[in-house]
Amino acid sequence: MADSSLSLRDPARQVARLSAAALIALLTAAALLLAWRRLAGALNHPLQPAALALVGLLLAAAAAALRSLWRQTTVSKGTVPFSSNENRDSPQISLLISAVLVLLGISLCLGSGVVGTIIFCAILAGEEAWAWRPTARPRRCPEQPIAAAVPRLRIDAAQPIAPCPLSPSATPPENVLQQLTLSQDADGCQQLAGWLRVRLAAGQRTCAIHVAFCPPFAKTPELAVQQTAGPQSRIRTAQLLPYGVRLDLKLAAAATSDASVLLRFTARSPLAD
Questions:
Q1: Which of 86, 105, 131 finishes a domain?
Q2: The total number of structural domains that make up the chain
Q3: What is the number of other CB atoms lying within 10 angstroms of the CB of residue 104?
Q4: Any idea what the Cα angle at residue 247 is, between residues 242 and 250, rounded to 5°?
Q5: With a threshold of 0.70, does the pTM exceed it?
Q6: Of 245, 140, 265, 114, which Cα lies nearest the Cα of 196?
Q7: Cα 83 to Cα 68: distance, rounded to the nearest angstrom
Q8: Alpha-carbon torsion 92, 98, 102, 105, what sign?
Q9: 100-150 pLDDT, tens per residue?
Q10: Do 109 and 186 fall into the same domain?
């Protein structure tokens, strides 16, 4: 149950970012070299229209791929990739790529025929228009926690919060990981109560606990959690929604051996009006 996705994702993102930066630097160096050779008079044979069109397609594809790769390495946590304006994430990089394409276009088109120049410029203009198009604001991924809107619980094994009302009192067997009971009060409130057991391996300190509310509540419920057994820990409500909750658990110290933390849990919400 350990939430290791972020720790595994960051090194891969750093490698991708370095790779994108290296490829952009190589494209820039190639553009500068070609311009210098053109100014020195070394390129006296213009490209034919078909060859110029092929080069334009290759440059447009390379520019789009570099922008996409760079954007993926700068997507902020909690947003959906490809839903935001790529130039908003890294306008300097997009501007650099555009400048490199302009420099390459001038260097390749000088002395070329009108037809080849028009095709070449149309291809690059289309790619640039697509790259700089206005798009919608970033959408927040529903799976990611929204810290500003989620209440937090701090639970200490020595000083637990008040016991959850109507939560089952009989401790479940050691092999039970979740034991939940759905009930309805006389005042019309629906309640899901029970036990959550979290297993931790030796050396592990943090993990994520996911509980689905089935059927979902009509409104976001009130949540109460109490630790009843296991090593001292802190629990934080990472995300609370009508259809489920995610709790982040952190031990006071890494487990020296395999251990488990037992939680008593209650989610309560009124029925729909």
A1: 131
A2: 2
A3: 23
A4: 170
A5: no
A6: 265
A7: 12
A8: positive
A9: 888 888 877 877 778 878 888 888 888 888 888 765 444 443 443 433 333
A10: no
